[in-house]
Design brief:
The protein is of the alpha/beta class. Helix content is 54%, strand content 12%.
Length: 133
Amino acid sequence: MKYLLDTNICIHLFRGKPKLGEKINKVGLENCAISEITLAELIFGAENSKYPTKNHNLINKLTGQISVLPIYEAIPLFGKEKVRLRRSGKMISDFDLLIGCTAVYQEMTMVTENMSESERINNIKIENWVIRN
């Protein structure tokens, strides 16, 4: 099985969430990827942080070990899902929708802590690997 890590999962990983690191090791880093939207969000977060150099280094280390998937092929699905969600009155942010549609298009399981919004996307498989104490 392949997994698409959401931005919030990457942030937890950078912060050293122990159970998350164990789960990624269990499924294999080679079976994980991020969307280029997640990369954009992580870079913005690094630029906006108190420690941009440190955070850019974490991002570079991660992207050196996993694939960064393009969103291009998922854009038609994004358009359909955005219309469906708008008509149902259950909109989610464009970035979250693009990441989720990428997971659906790529037939991957999206790993996110934001289950309530992500589950609104048709045909998405999602898991939450963050264990809160």
